[in-house]
Amino acid sequence: MRDTGFGDALLALTLTLLAFVPTMSKIGAQIGDLPERPADLLGLGLTLAQTVPLAVRRRWPAGCLAIVASAFAGHQALGFATTFGSIGLYLALYSAGAHQIRFRGGLAAVASAGYLGLAVTLHRLGSPQGIADYLAFYLTLSVVWAVGNTVRTRRTAAALARRASAEAATAIERARIARELHDVVTHHVTAMVIQADAAQILLTSAPERAGAGLSAVSDTGRLALRELRHLLGVLEATGESATADRVPARGGITDLIDQARRAGQPVDYTEQGERRAQPMDMELAAYRVVQEALTNAMKHAPRMPTRILLRHNADHLEIAATTDGPGSPPAARRPRSEGGRGLAGLSARVRMLDGELVAGPRPEGGFEVRAVIPYPPVQE
After folding, report:
1. pLDDT of residue 164
2. What are the strands of the beta sheet with 356-361, ordered from one edge?
3. Would you give the DSSP letter of residue 379?
4. Which helix (H) or strand (E) holds 10?
5. Strand locations in 214-366, DSSP E?
6. Which residue has the higher pLDDT, 276 or 373?
7. Which of 109, 130, 39, 25 is nearest to 78 (CA)?
8. CA–CA gap between residue 149 and residue 229 (Å, rounded)
9. pLDDT value for 121
10. 370: β partners
């Protein structure tokens, strides 16, 4: 938060000095127009009371207005000559409109009542001003208050907009982290469970092969820990250099396929077209599409043939993952979006890259996940 105390103190000091400059004596707020009274210590004190309180005009706007307005009223009722210090009334009114938070309506009512009392007093003291003059001066003061109120309203609206924007950004980031955690944990834990089940069966049927299954569980666990460390690094990072850890190591898709194969899922992987440089978010999205498709295949169609196709086209990247299903109706085996994550979260990730993801049962049986992600335009 900005420290405004020094600026307000400087303003009060400047106005105080200008109040005693002879050429500035005719400039100021004036309404009484009573016979002029010679300057004395009382007049000096009333002048200072109209300028010095401005040093706290933003910290205590109501108190500042009360002192300045009272000093102005006394200065006018006693007939002292106008000074530039009377401009402090306008500044105090503006500050009350712009910075007073509580009891704004009550403060306005008290200020209006005080002005009415001043008008009646000046009239009884023989002021030549008429009702129209008092109303015009009151409207001037009201406009000054209204300007301050408008500034306060706009400042509050801007602060609310910034807060809403920050909350929206936080919500988006939380959703992204939740998707990342889901993708990492669900895939690797699913693979580990399947590998552990297979190793348990081998312990009784083929003990000599059980070691390979347990080794696959260990490798999958280490891979999961590595990706979780990457994600935790993103959470802790404050610089851009750490964001690269969001992307799994190059060739990560082939690691996913090898992992699925070790878990007993027959996977056929094909890559077509000439690979080109991809942005970080695009590469991560492609990795997550393949990861989610393999996770669903291992969970809902274990040991059924799965085909992964990565096609590099001229203007877009296409990912297709097809899993053959059992004899039961395909819709009955459809993977769920798991509470807005899984396929639903993956679809949102792809849409953020102006791409499209379609997932659903195939007419001939099984399930297919297909994503098309356009390459970003080349910067000239």
Report:
1. 87
2. 267-272, 306-312, 316-323, 367-374, 356-361
3. P
4. helix 5-18
5. 267-272, 306-312, 316-323, 356-361
6. 373
7. 39
8. 51
9. 92
10. 320, 358
